């Protein structure tokens, strides 16, 4: 007779086989991309584990959950607090933030709704040291943390840069968790910046429905629906469905349309077993818009609304992600989580004319012509065991994990130089095809395979002294194939990433912490001798303090850090045209974050960051140059208040200031973009079944640059806009 635990182990193994790498495929001559594993559901960020935590349906009307601490406080008007006390991203086990020896900030759904957030860049501006790095031509969103590029995850699966170049939709996001510093011990291959983890909404135990319509400046229209509830009389099977449709123009005259839906099923197979299945599908069509460009040491002196790309040059993107997570508790102190994920992304750009090269006269712009497509395919698997044990008076939470991934990416197309235009002449412009003899094909693919094994022990010597020890070993192979030249450029690497964190609580509401972490990321290319490059290595040190203030309603995090990145590829002075790995970069600074409720109904989220990120060794760029997209100073302050009783019950107001200092746009520091201060405000009425809001964004009409990736990709921010939302909840 096979017992139940054996059956569950077999199920976990079966899921592993289902998630095992499949041969890379090809679509219309476009090679593929398959996933990596450092992004799989994790202890508390896994779908199954998250299902244990309250779903936090932003305002009331949604059923109450067992742990009110993680829920919005429910009153007649649906008042919610910004305070969140627990997170799983930092440890992959559900751990109080006060007991986590590393900086982590949580942006709950309440903040997203109060600020009228549609794009995640507006949510992440609330976190210290996080800045928009690039929009990838108006298609995606990439972020910078503490001076280095950051990777984004959804429920601990990598979600940007590999399986989808599209910006994620906020419709199904419950909260955003930002982990600072090197984090390879749990997330594998990544820069030493940190991790942005998007946690999605889970099914609710009672029927819930919300339908909302938003309209705003520049013909912005968006409709969303959020449905949830049980599918069986005993509640063992429950669902959640989030849908969004968006049709919008912008101040730069580029149209965009998006269709998004995300169904989730949760099946409580038994008292100790859960199975979660989730799908996200996103169809996004919009104009490729690289933005403005640099002239001399600054931004071209032209209207920020001026578009040089062809407004007819649409990009069609289709992204699908499917995740299954099985969680089983073998005993009170032993839990297994097995997750598998498949994702693919197809992008087609049938015809584009975009800015190419600005000539020496600083007014003649050569347009670039481009058409083609690219395809990504990802498969990932993760298996975690969490064991809680005691050795004498010492408590242990041991995490053992295995990750396996494969992702392939392929691209094919044609490019060339088109006609020229005068940047100081207003549109419309003429776009002329280059002759056939001046159109050049490109085609290639990369298949990345990875394996990781990690072990972590959270040791609690007492209520006020805790130690985290962890280590991870990874191997990665990522050969690039040039299908036209018939060449293969191999890239392989392996690395061990340690982690040590120590936390001491001099009082029940105060903790002091220190940590040491390392990270690694593959490097591509070869030296003059043909030797593959080693992975880049990041080493981070952090000291900090956390405190629960005002009776636990307000949370503060103060951190000092230093990060060094080694093995950076730079020019080989002895062999022109080749590179060597002697470059180094470093970042150090101080950060402060405040989040919570000052008084009943009065919420606050604030941040400040001093970031000194620069080149410390290089053969290509001057030592001391600042790293791009990382201002010395940046900060934010947002506060919202709602009246809970009396004649004005249900009414509320919100206001905020977001400031970013001057930033350089490239490693050469050849140009910079000015700092800016943006002011937002909001007016709310939320009572019973009705939720209405008007958001005023960039209230003072500040002209500013959101991000500058390089000289031909400077992204201006929107001027003053108004956005109104009307939502009905059942």
**Overall body shape:** globular
N-C termini distance: 48 Å
The computed structural class is: mainly beta
What is the CA-atom radius of gyration, in angstroms?
A: 25 Å
Structural overview:
The chain is mainly beta and 730 residues long. A hairpin with a 2-residue loop joins β24 (440-462) and β25. The radius of gyration is 25 Å and the shape is globular. The model is unreliable at 1-79 (pLDDT under 50).
Could you name the key traits of this structure?
730 residues; mainly beta; 22-stranded antiparallel barrel; five-stranded mixed beta sheet; 42 strands; globular
Summarize this entry quickly.
This protein has 730 residues and is mainly beta.
Strand and helix layout:
Blueprint: H1 4-19, E1 26-27, E2 30-31, H2 47-50, E3 86-87, E4 95-96, E5 104-108, H3 109-114, H4 120-124, E6 130-134, E7 142-145, E8 148-149, E9 151-154, E10 157-158, E11 173-180, H5 184-187, E12 194-200, E13 208-216, E14 220-230, E15 237-248, E16 256-270, E17 273-287, E18 294-295, E19 298-299, E20 314-331, E21 334-358, E22 364-391, E23 394-422, E24 440-462, E25 465-477, E26 480-482, E27 487-489, E28 492-507, E29 510-521, E30 536-549, E31 554-571, E32 579-599, E33 602-617, E34 633-642, E35 651-660, E36 663-664, E37 672-673, E38 676-687, E39 690-697, E40 705-710, E41 713-716, E42 721-729
